[in-house]
Amino acid sequence: MKRSEVSTTTMILTRRSAIGSFAIMAIAGVSPWAGSQARSEHSNGGMPMKHYAMSTRTISDAINTSGLLVVAQWEAKEGQADKVAEILDGFLPEAQKDPGTKLFLIGRGKDNPAQFLFYELFQDEAAFKAHQDSAAFKTYIAEQALPLLAKRERSQYALL
């Protein structure tokens, strides 16, 4: 193999390994941002989110097929981080039920609890649109959470 082929193969395997590890931690109920729930609570002064989960589909299905990957980063306004976390705690199980949702993870910043990271894998563009059109998205995200944010960034990726 050429050097460029090796690095591309390594990057793909590393990405899939990272996704798999993240998902395994999610299923096990282990926060990827902190070694333990108690340490997480202590270090950021807030309550950790109860859910780091994915739907009942298999990890293999989620990472070994094509799809649309959406990564979003939020930052809550001053004093609103715990309220945002509470809203997301109610939203997450609803989002995971959306048809075409393969993987849906939300993390809260360990060093800055006002920061939130979304890692969402959808079957395709139509599934992502359906997710955004869902009653849960409109209620929890559009109506409740977005007004509490200082910053919201999203990027979309096609799986290799």
From TrEMBL:
Enumerate the PROSITE patterns for this protein.
ABM
Positions of the ABM domain: 68-157
MF terms in GO: monooxygenase activity
* Annotated source species: Bradyrhizobium brasilense
Q: Which UniProt keywords apply?
A: Monooxygenase, Oxidoreductase
InterPro entries in alphabetical order:
ABM_dom (IPR007138), AI-2_Isomerase_LsrG (IPR050744), Dimeric_a/b-barrel (IPR011008)
Q: What is this protein called?
A: Antibiotic biosynthesis monooxygenase
Q: What domain of life is recorded for the organism?
A: Bacteria
